Amino acid sequence: MGKTVAEKIFDAHRVDNPCDDIHVIRLDAVFCHEITTPVAINDLIARGKDRVFNSSKIKAVIDHVTPAKNSKTAMQGKIVRDWARRHHIMDFFDIGRNGVCHAIFPEKGFVRPGYTIIMGDSHTCTHGAFGAFAAGVGTTDLEVGILKGVCAFHYPQTIKIEVNGALPAGVYAKDVILSIIGKIGVSGATNKVIEFVGQVIDEMSMESRMTLCNMAVEAGATSGICYPDMTTVEYLWPFIQDEFKTKDDARDAYLKFHSDKDAVYDALITVDVGDLEPQTTFGYKPDCVKPVHEMHGTPVDQVYIGSCTNGRLEDLRIAASVLKGYRISDTVRGIVSPATPEIFSRALEEGIIKVFMDAGFCVTNPTCGACLGMSNGVLAEGEVCASTTNRNFFGRMGKGGMVHLMSPATAAATAIAGFITNSKLFKG
Amino acid sequence: MKQFKGKVLFLDRSDINTDEIIPAKYLIEISKDALRPHLLEDLKLSDFEPSKDIAGKAIIVTRSNFGCGSSREHAPWALEVNGINLVIAESFARIFRQNMFNCGMMAVELQQDHIDRLFTDFSGDQTIIETDLPNSRFIVSSGKTRAEFPFSISDFDRALVEAGGWVEYADQNY
């Protein structure tokens, strides 16, 4: 009987099988940020176990509130910073070099096909875009990961979602994943891995695949996962060129992180996106999804473009292509947060930052801030934000605030109009 | 080992997320105790008053997909510092469920008709649940009404509860 890619990865990393389908697996990387790690660090200190299993496999960043906004957030940063120094964690990204975790860690080449990765952050599933098993965990799992380099999971069951057709103009990975979540619901993949396959995925950039896998957790999934191919190899080439003679060799070596033809799935779902329209959310759950035209005219107070879902260069390019030559509505506050310094820098070189500024956007440093209402764009009670982020929970971006999730193109068009609308209206 | 016994807080809604259990603005706290006054502060549920309804409760009974969203372990901690060590639901989001057992707390699934019965026969302020862990059953009582509900958790979950959490377990075993 064949295996899914997630099963192959588990079988190659198993340390223990304490009972039933619980498997303790060895971790290739443990990612850390300043919100969920400090409590783990303090607990390890209190237990007299202030150690790390392998300083080169731990990567850390300060990204949620940066620069620090008050004494408490400054202390969270300090705890992680001091810990990274104490344990010689070389891959630590502090202010000036820091970016949103799920954008900066892949950009630095820390994610590889076949890897097992945990982080105290639910959107860790993003890294499955590279053919890795990557799962968000709580602080205790993170703490044990830091100390022992292991984590316990149920042996993975996989839902295979095949995405076929050709994406219409103005429709993007964000629209695909919103429509899938709308279909299967916020618990449709709980305790499962979602494997994204099919022609549409094959043609997607790594950025788009990350957008897709990022929101797998919004359907409850443990990890999203895409098969590594030449697109993956091209993205990783600067980091793997010493390991392989040619890119074809790398691609062939990574074929072992594809599922077998006769692998057994928990469910198979086929989606045709040939007629897909841009999507947005209307309620307080990410599965409350509608085509944008049904929400046309909904006024917004703020437009936010950024986050681990849609703050990458491709996203900024798309938004800028809609914004170019326009000014955003006087009734809208536009905020864009390029997800990493590298993205910011390249967006500057390409003139994208100028397009945003000419349109009337505020350009912030790379940070998660606004997405979860911690800094850099918190909503007032009763306010509405059109956002390229991943969660529209009640109060997520600020107490009493409302969030509509959408693609960067739709968000840019919405900023110009002052109300939710389709990017077709503006795109040259 | 923690105690799993006491008065019940009934939350009659599915998909209660961890932003509702503890809003992100409190994630800047590095002591669990600081979370105490903010448990379920943003819960979208009519007639729910956190300060009044949470007081004295030790167990939550709710519907499906409890704890979805953010991975924040601050959600179990906010429950823990309010004296709530057990959540009974039709289903849980994976990370929240694991976080509960990792803290030596319990997140236990009951089938839908049993959850329905808890809501119809027992909802109210005076319901008490006792946990018979060795025999895997809950004993629910309210005045003269009494019922037993069997439950199942894996041996691993049980080991975590008995060890006091995953750090203790992992330390003994790996």
Explain the overall architecture.
- With 428 residues, chain A is α/β, with parallel strands linked by helices.
- Chain A has two domains: 5-270, Aconitase, domain 3; 280-425, Aconitase, domain 3 (2-Layer Sandwich), CATH 3.30.499.10.
- Chain A has helices at 5-13, 37-46, 71-86, 101-107, 139-148, 173-184, 199-202, 206-214, 230-240, 247-253, 292-295, 307-310, 313-323, 341-349, 352-359, 408-417; strands at 14-19, 22-26, 29-33, 58-61, 92-93, 116-119, 133-136, 150-154, 157-164, 192-197, 223-226, 267-272, 279-281, 289-291, 302-305, 333-336, 361-363, 384-387, 402-405.
- Chain A has a five-stranded parallel β-sheet with strand order 5-4-3-6-7, with helices on one face.
- In chain A, helix 2 (37-46) packs across helix 3.
- The model of chain A has no long low-confidence stretch (mean pLDDT 97).
- With 174 residues, chain B is an alpha/beta fold.
- Chain B has one domain: Aconitase, domain 4.
- In chain B, 30% of the residues lie in helices and 21% in strands.
- Chain B has seven helices and seven strands; from the N terminus they run βααβαβαβαβββαα.
- Chain B has helices at 18-21, 50-54, 74-80, 94-102, 112-122, 155-163, 166-173, and strands spanning 6-11, 57-62, 86-89, 106-109, 128-132, 137-142, 145-150.
- In chain B, strands 4-3-2-1-5-6-7 form a seven-stranded mixed β-sheet.
- In chain B, helix 3 (74-80) links the parallel strand 2 and strand 3.
- Chain B starts with 5 loop residues before the first strand and ends with a helix.
- At the A-B interface, strand 1, helix 2, helix 3 and helix 5 of A face helix 4, helix 6 and helix 7 of B.
